[in-house]
Amino acid sequence: MKAVIIALAISGASAFTPKTHGRRVRTRPTMVVNPAAAAVAAKAMSPAAIAGASAASMIVADAGLAGLPETQGLVVAGILGVVSGFAVAGGQKSTPPPPPTASGGKAITKEEVLACQAGWVNAIQDISAAYLEKGDFVGAAGDAAGALYGYGHHDVLFKPTKATKNPFRPTGEEAMSYFVGADNFPGSDKFKGEDGGFAINGGMGWKKVVFNNHKISLNGGTALAMGSYDFTCATTGAVNTVEYTFGYKRCADGKPRIYLHHSSVPYSA
Fold first, then answer.
1. What's the predicted TM-score (pTM) here?
2. Taking a C-beta distance cutoff of 8 angstroms, is the pair 46, 93 a contact?
3. What percentage of the chain exceeds 70 in pLDDT?
4. Which residues pair with 243 in a beta bridge?
5. CA of 240: how far to CAs of 205, 220, 229, 232, in Å?
6. Nearest-CA neighbor of 190 among 198, 182, 179, 201?
7. Are 226 and 244 contacting, i.e. CB atoms less than 8 angstroms apart?
8. Whole-angstrom Cα distance, residue 222 to residue 211?
9. What are the pLDDT digits (tens) for 69-99?
10. Are 202 and 226 in contact (CB under 8 A)?
11. Contact assessment for residue 181 and residue 189, using Cβ atoms and an 8 Å cutoff
């Protein structure tokens, strides 16, 4: 509608002057401008769309549309103004959208990073609770892995805290073995004796997890967070501190997920 207003305000080319002695006198095409309408329309349209609509008057003249009656010529000019205005302006408002990120989506925000961390905390606590209550903790872990980690969306660089012989877990199945235990996840024979199930604390469970971010770095479609998190054992109440680096990347479905996870126990001499 805005393009129609501006087109009708400044693009109405007419090939005729008013009647003279009872007849019309054909002249060169002229611009029919309504100053009041133009002022209103100028506020409503972006500069690019105004330029496109103005250019439509030239199209009217060059295309031979000047032979139409005034009212028809004005309507045609308006239609061409709409087309030209949107061709120039891209059908968008005057405020351009943020530039695309390297991953093709909108930039990840600090709030989204914190939400991802909160989701991770809830997942560990829920998996532990399901295990201690003899519920489907493996299913809970699978749901959490799909929501939090980018397996199936992009490469995931995962170096778990307690992994020894197999320190890197590039697939979702290998990550599941680590979180729920090799004895609890089919096809994890190579990890037996190594994976006791971090998310269930080897059978004792976790009742609380707290993230302490040292720094969050926002980089468009990705973000990094470094710090330490404290895990409170559900059985003994002991607190274990682990250091981490997490990387988050926005996936094709618009959700940020983990693409980098490195955890390690603080060094002690």
1. 0.62
2. yes
3. 61
4. 228, 264
5. 12, 33, 8, 6
6. 182
7. yes
8. 19
9. 544 443 333 433 433 443 334 444 444 444 4
10. no
11. no
